[in-house]
Amino acid sequence: MARVVLLFALAALAGLPTVSVAADPTWRAGAAAVVITPEKFMWMSGYGSRTKPAEGKASDLYAKALFLDAGGDAGRAVLITLDLVGIDRDTAQKLTQAIREKYGLARDRVILSVSHTHCGPVVGHNLRPMYFFDAAQAKLVDEYTDHLHGLILEAVDKAQKALAPATITSGHGFVTFATNRRNNKEPEVPALRPVGKLQGPVDHDVPVLCVRDPAGAVRAVVFGYACHATTLSFYQWCADWPGFAQTEIEAAHPGAVALFWAGCGADQNPLPRQSIALAQAYGKELAQGVEAVIKSPMKPVKPVMKARYTEIDLPLGDLPTREAVAQDMTSTNKFIASRAKMLFEELRTKGTLRTTYPYPVQVWRLGDDLTWVTLGGEVVVDYALRLKKELGDVWVTAYANDLMAYIPSRRVLKEGGYEGATSMIYYGLPTIWSPKVEDMIVETTARLVKDVREGP
């Protein structure tokens, strides 16, 4: 009892929220960060308008890992966050297989999440129809992708070796800079925001997970937000506002590792944008939102964990004919022509185009009632809003495990536009998605959520 009183007294003296400090740690946790900024100036990902490699660095890029252990093999898992636009299926499969072999973690125990910063390097085959670089740059992309594999495993290894007794708490914040880009014209946003006239669905929730050592000191902070990391479009490496937010949080808690995950923000932008000052301001705003949660009463997370992972054969719409693909190869639109060349090669080698895509859905349960959904691709905000409405309090991460395309809701698919249709060109998929995709993803997610919520 004396130890409990002493811990609470120390927490009060340090200005820490006493509700977040337990008498005895219930988890083991370890976090680590490794710099993944390319050593050479190579092609940048995120924008088809770029015409040359990076020229400088505004901030470093990181791979970060949080290793969790709730006891026993079934209680071990790792969250990996990356300051990248995305990773492709091949990269994800190689990483998760390597982690399985070294740590014995099954596929459902590994989350690979990217911040979707548009000022990082091209990785693997992600978004390849968007880029037009020479053989030397292609070689740099391949070399970097191979090197990245080792750096990510290094981060996981350091996090695993840092495992130590810990308590975990959770909470929610609220930040409002994300704006629906389909429903608001960018130049008009500064005038519309102050008078409350911004249109379209948004998700301004900020889920927060806080890991503390037995003395109450913050050792890791995991947080998410549903918005594109597109404040910047220059030729410098930069983690954009998610990176600046993590830097702010780590500065407030020396020795801690901050890990950011992107929510369903495929149709959400930080507006206005196009300056370092704005990216820093958004990062600071988000960090302050996270800090407010950390300093408030947070809910203890018991040392309980269940995980599930599956892949859906997500159907595509009507496929183009061989003749249509051949015709697109001569298009004056270089992106359409680039995709057509890839599709024609697929037709030549396989005889047909793919009709489905293996779409990843993953769910973690932490403690009694923290349900964490993880979806692949660039998911529009409708999914998070629907899942929260139908499944209750769930965290919804997107941009994870495989960035194969935009994932429109039925509404967005029907409306068309970039998120619903033309973005598929840049990802190299042969056509738009089937109208069935939203219900298939939601129904599969609901099944996995039901599974992890049942039983001990």
User: DSSP helix count?
Assistant: 12
SS-derived structural category? alpha/beta
Shape: globular
> What is the quaternary state of this protein?
single chain
pLDDT below 50 for ≥5 consecutive residues: which ranges? 1-23
Q: From the alpha-carbon coordinates, what is the Rg to the nearest angstrom?
A: 22 Å
Question: What is the strand content?
Answer: 15-25%
Helix content: 25-40%
How far is the N terminus from the C terminus?
Answer: 29 Å
Task: Please tally the β strands and state the result.
Answer: 19
Give the biggest beta sheet: 9 strands, mixed
Mean pLDDT metric? 93
Protein name: Alkaline ceramidase domain protein
Pfam family, one: Ceramidase_alk
Keywords: Signal
Domain Neutral/alkaline non-lysosomal ceramidase N-terminal: 42-251
Quick recap:
The chain has 456 residues and is an alpha/beta fold.
Description:
This protein has a domain at 2-300. It contains twelve helices and 19 strands. It has helices spanning 2-14, 89-103, 135-161, 189-192, 240-252, 276-295, 322-328, 334-350, 381-391, 410-415, 417-427, 437-453, and strands spanning 27-35, 56-57, 62-69, 76-82, 110-114, 164-174, 178-180, 205-212, 218-225, 236-237, 257-262, 268-270, 299-300, 305-315, 356-366, 370-375, 378-379, 394-397, 406-407. The strands form five sheets. Strands 1, 3, 4, 5, 6, 8, 9, 11 and 13 form a nine-stranded mixed beta sheet that branches. Strands 14-15-16-18 form a four-stranded mixed beta sheet, covered by helices on one side. Strand 3 and strand 4 form a beta hairpin. Helix 2 (89-103) runs parallel beside helix 3, helix 7 (322-328) runs antiparallel to helix 8 and helix 9 packs across helix 12. The chain is globular.
